[in-house]
Automatic annotation (TrEMBL), chain A:
Coiled coil stretches, renumbered: none
Bilayer disposition of the protein: Peripheral membrane protein
GO cellular component terms attached to this protein's record: plasma membrane
Main location: membrane
Gene source species: Sedimentitalea nanhaiensis
Molecular function, one GO term: ATP hydrolysis activity
Keywords noted in UniProt: ATP-binding, Cell membrane, Membrane, Nucleotide-binding, Repeat, Sugar transport, Translocase, Transport
Keyword Transport: yes
Localization terms from the record: Cell membrane
Protein name as it appears in the record: Nucleoside ABC transporter ATP-binding protein
Domain ABC transporter residues, every copy: 6-237, 253-498
From TrEMBL, chain B:
Organism: Sedimentitalea nanhaiensis
Protein name according to UniProt: Nucleoside ABC transporter membrane protein
Chief location bin: membrane
Membrane topology: Multi-pass membrane protein
Keyword annotations: Cell membrane, Membrane, Transmembrane, Transmembrane helix
Claim: Zinc is one of the keywords in the record: no
An MF annotation (GO) of this entry: transmembrane transporter activity
């Protein structure tokens, strides 16, 4: 048997209070696309940080081509031929592509030579990129190409990719996969981290599944069903949310001709939006992050106010009302950013229940606060939505992401909204909690509420929404029935592949 | 290697303990400072902290504590509301002067009318004077996004110039033989803020206690106070909750200006007695220390105001009896704030000794 490219043996890493990785072992062969699969918090990031030299293992060894490998820092890892594309890009908006790439190099060549090499690599691997464009103007997919090309210029033997498709449209995913297959055919190994099972089935040769920091199984993705892999990941049988057939009522939320200037320098302007949502209906709004999702939520929550009749709730103009007045009328929202937007990190859950619940749950009288009732409300959210916390006195910051998300969604759902708008309701939430949140949203709609679900998770939107529309650069496509849509059509609604015209020349 | 590790929850114990530890650290390092200056550190510390309360002449110093403490508490309560919301009014000293000028101006305008309503009108004038002066940075911030720290601070120096001009010009005592300074309001029964001068009681003491209670109820029981805290903790979450940031800025600067103005009026109509070039002695700045020393908590501010008054009076005794320079006392007070802010770290972080590692 040949020596594997990288062999991990018994890697363990503990942080105060939590064992991130416990005795993890597996091998990655040359030219293999190896998937690392697991829920949020399963220990995937810690594991790759050890391989990339960002974190030192407490115990265990790594062998690279059979010889011991213990990088003290990322520079050492890069010198040994290991490159990594992070989920969050580290690029400077104000610099151009070539300058950004030069910044990451030990000894950058002259700018003209570098630009030439960038062009060569980008053409070879089908990743069109102009080295002299300013990064601030690039789409998320193009920024990722910058990161990938930065890695490819080092001629890596192992390329680590952390959740690379979370910012891509389906078309862009296809392009990325072509590139990765080409790399594989040239003998580059790829460690591919994801929780999107269909992608892994399409791309990867081998998968290692992590759960709670331990290696719980390996499989060949092409021969394993997505459901089996999911259950391996979660450790229990998954329940698919159920939707009961329901009759649609009157129009609950009506947005017509809404245009809003960008609230900040790096925000997105909303352009001529038309949305109607009926009682009992779930409207899914997809799109790559940064195309106006945050602004749309702010317009609906009342954080950004518009002309009164641009937004109508049950026929009543509410566009010029603030958040409190809209809550009183039954328009509730749950923003994407849990800490600092939906909840105040250092405040207790009781105080955070007061944050949006004061009006509809009658937690105040003449401006005076009823803390005991607020605590009762917080306890009800914790109980009904299975929020894991010692009690309502704990700070929001002390909760895990998934638990806080359940709290935030539960807080709005329990206030019996007439219209609920959620942004990324299951982002960073484990599969079972995500299923519970989706079920709660569907139940709410079944009881006659209108729901707008903004999400980047297309599977989620296909699962819960009746109609689907995509946000692209602040414009909303015409909503269509979800049942008749294919993934390709959704991709086109999302704007197709950004900046890909060059590729087809 | 020493590593700071973020606590999952802010520590309640440390939040309560840091003021005490900071006072102790100030005593130790202040003692060192006094020792370097050639004084007996134990005696100096005792003179500052012990003599005003329990020394031979305590009967004289104790009422002084009320006189010094009241304006500090009154101003600090107002500032603490803003500080909690992240609105940094550094110019309370200026608002204090303007409140005194406006309030005293009302009183002097009525002189020598002896009517019950003179003093209440002066109180209103004082509050309005301070409020109006604070509205300048507030409106500039809301309309043009200026920095309230700079604007409010600069306005202190404008107010000082105005004070000088008033006490030399418009408000100068016509029977004062050309000396600068206004009529003495203590000699004008309808306008004095004294209740009982021997006990150190004036209306400012009552106002400070009322302000403490008011702030406590506001912050703990009222939606406005909740919104103030929320804005300081997470401004975006506050907007989401329905807070209008502009209105909150106007309220916070307005209330702190009004309370500082009141403090100025009570001072000028009582302990100071007259508008003079230098009747203000930095209460508006010291109140910033008091607000933080009291953890921005109303009851804490009450205690901290007492402590600062103690160092003021003790410092004066130390100056006169031990010959310590005034600057040394100011350094001593500055140390207190320094240690408090430094130790504040322990509320949110814990210190761990750990082997070196690439994180």
């Amino acid at each position: 048997m040949t020596v594997p490219l990288l062999s991990l043996q018994g890697l363990t890493k503990a942080y105060p209070g939590v064992v991130a990785n416990n005795n993890v072992s597996f091998d990655i062969g040359t030219g293999q696309v190896h998937a690392l699969l697991g829920e949020n918090g399963a220990g995937k990031s810690t594991l790759v940080k050890m391989i990339y030299g960002l974190v030192k293992p407490d115990s265990g060894v790594m062998l690279l081509n059979g010889s011991p490998y213990a990088p003290s820092e990322p520079r050492a890892a890069r010198a040994d031929g290991i490159a990594m594309v992070f989920q969050h890009f580290s690029l400077f908006d104000a610099l151009n592509v070539a300058e950004n790439i030069a910044l990451g190099m030990e000894t950058p060549p002259a700018m003209r030579d570098l630009a030439k090499r960038i062009r060569e690599v980008s053409e070879t691997y089908g990743l069109p990129l102009d080295p002299f464009r300013t990064v601030g103007d690039l789409s998320a997919g193009e920024r990722q190409r910058v990161e990938i090309i930065r890695c490819l210029l080092q001629d890596p033997k192992l390329l680590i990719m952390d959740e690379p498709t979370s910012v891509l449209t389906p078309q862009e995913v296809d392009i990325l996969f072509e590139t990765l297959r080409k790399l594989k055919s040239e003998g580059t190994a790829i460690l591919y981290i994801s929780h999107k099972l269909e992608e892994i089935r399409a791309l990867c040769d081998h998968a290692t599944v992590l759960r709670l920091g331990e290696n719980v199984g390996e499989c060949v993705p092409a021969d394993t069903s997505a459901r089996d892999m999911a259950e391996l990941m979660v450790g229990t049988t998954l329940q698919t949310p159920e939707r009961s057939g329901r009759d649609l009522g009157d129009v609950a939320l009506d947005i017509s001709g809404l245009s809003v200037a960008s609230p900040g320098e790096f925000g997105t302007a909303l352009k001529n939006l038309h949305i109607t949502v009926r009682q009992g209906e779930v409207l899914g709004i997809g799109g790559v992050a940064g195309n106006g999702q945050d602004e749309l939520l702010a317009v609906l929550s009342g954080e950004i106010q518009t002309a009164a009749d641009a937004v109508r709730l049950n026929g009543q103009p509410v566009g010029n009302l603030g958040p409190t007045a809209r809550r009183r009328l039954g328009l509730l929202t749950a923003p994407e950013e849990r800490l600092g937007h939906a909840a105040a990190p250092d405040m207790s859950l009781t105080e955070n229940a007061m944050l949006t619940g004061s009006v509809r749950e009658s937690l105040e009288r003449h401006g005076f606060l009823k803390w005991r009732e607020a605590q009762g409300f917080a306890e009800r959210i914790i109980h009904d939505f299975d929020v894991r916390t010692p009690g309502p006195d704990n700070a929001a910051r002390s909760l895990s992401g998934g638990n806080l998300q359940k709290f935030v969604i539960g807080r709005e759902v329990l206030q019996r909204p007439e219209v609920l708008v959620v942004n990324q309701p299951t982002w960073g939430v484990d599969a079972s909690a995500a299923a519970a949140i989706r079920q709660a949203i569907l139940d709410l709609a079944a009881n006659g509420a209108a729901v707008v679900c903004i999400s980047q998770d297309l599977d989620e939107l296909m699962e819960i929404s009746d109609r689907f529309a995509a946000l692209n650069e602040g414009r909303l496509s015409t909503p269509r029935d979800t049942r008749d849509l294919t993934i390709d059509e959704i991709g086109l609604m999302m704007g197709g592949a950004h900046g890909m015209e060059v590729a087809h020349v | 290697m020493i590593v700071l590790e973020r606590r999952p929850q802010p520590s309640r114990n440390w939040a309560l303990a840091t003021p005490l530890v900071a006072v102790l650290a100030t005593m130790v390092f202040g003692g060192l400072l006094f020792a370097v200056l050639g004084k007996n550190p134990v005696e100096a510390i005792r003179t500052i902290f012990w003599d005003p309360l329990f020394g031979e002449f305590a009967f004289y110093y104790r009422p002084q504590l009320l006189v010094k403490g009241a304006p500090l508490v009154l101003i600090a309560i107002g500032l603490s509301l803003g500080f909690k919301a992240g609105v940094w009014n550094i110019g309370a000293e200026g608002q204090y002067i303007m409140g005194a000028l406006a309030g005293a101006g009302v009183g002097l305008a009525f002189y020598p009318l002896d009517a019950w309503y003179v003093f209440p009108l002066m109180v209103i004038g004082g509050a309005l004077g301070g409020w109006a002066w604070a509205m300048i940075p507030a409106i500039l911030k809301v309309r043009f996004g200026t920095n309230e720290i700079l604007v409010s601070l600069m306005l202190v120096y404008v107010a000082e110039q105005l004070l000088a001009s008033m006490s030399l010009g418009l408000m100068r005592n016509p029977e004062g033989h050309g000396f600068p300074g206004s009529r003495n309001l203590n000699d004008y029964a309808a306008a004095t803020s004294w209740i009982n001068q021997n006990a150190g009681l004036h209306w400012g003491v009552a106002a400070a206690l009322i302000a403490v209670i008011f702030a406590y109820v506001l912050l703990n029981r009222h939606m406005l106070g909740f919104h103030i805290r929320l804005t300081g903790e997470a401004p975006r979450a506050a907007r989401f909750a329905g807070v209008n940031p502009a209105r909150l800025i106007l309220f916070c600067l307005g209330i702190s200006g009004a309370l500082a103005g009141l403090a100025g009026l009570f001072e000028v109509a009582g302990p100071a007695g007259q508008v003079s070039i230098d009747f203000n002695i930095g209460y508006g700045f010291t109140a910033i220390i008091v607000a933080f020393l009291g953890r921005l908590h109303p009851l804490g501010i009450l205690l901290a105001g007492g402590l600062m008054a103690l160092t003021y009076i003790g410092g004066e005794i130390a100056q006169s009896q031990l010959g310590l320079p005034a600057a040394a006392i100011q350094v001593f007070q500055g140390m207190l704030l320094f240690f408090l802010l430094a130790l504040d770290l322990l509320t949110h972080f814990r210190i761990r000794l750990r082997k070196r590692e690439v994180a």
